Task: structure prediction
Amino acid sequence: MERLICLAVGYVFGLFQTSYIYGRLHGIDIRKHGSGNAGTTNMLRTLGTKAGAITLLGDALKCVAAVWVIRLIFHGTHADMLPLLSFYTAAGVIFGHNFPFYLNFRGGKGIAATAGLILSLNWYLTLFGFVTFALTLLLTHYVSLGSLLVYVGFMIELVIMGQRGVFGMTQNYLNEMYAVGAVLTLLAFWMHRSNIQRLWHHEERKTYLFKKKK
Result:
């Protein structure tokens, strides 16, 4: 039952579509511009750096907030499985973000919300994810590649840290957490399937945070 509660709470938080709300405040439906995706990258390309930063922050913090609420609810009764419940909550946020019912299930791709999950779990995972993404973007200028590499690295680090006892859970809870993490990873790759195809054919659009000096 607690897992269903986490998924439900997460989904509700995930319905806060930062890019859609910000876009509407500026007179546009972000899903009708650029790539059509209601996420950070499309906001960055369509409305600029400020809009992209606000979207990233809003989508990450909604996951952090959802996890915080769940920890408040269950810290006294399920302290031995809070990291697992955090994962279920984040999964709900990501599904709410990707498939918001009030937008005909057309949302984002869940990367910024995933950043919120990583931020909620462990500072080392946060640092590792940031460095992985930043280096990939700096060297290739492909946001999609950076996002996918963050997920791959996250899963590897998650298992390593879990087996080293960082999360303080029994093996059955750890295995369940790995399974949820694997589902989220597969979902991320599925949501980026068109990006992967473009990357393969060297047709993916590059993103530059700072314009080159002429």
In short: The two ends are 59 Å apart (CA to CA). The mean pLDDT is 88.
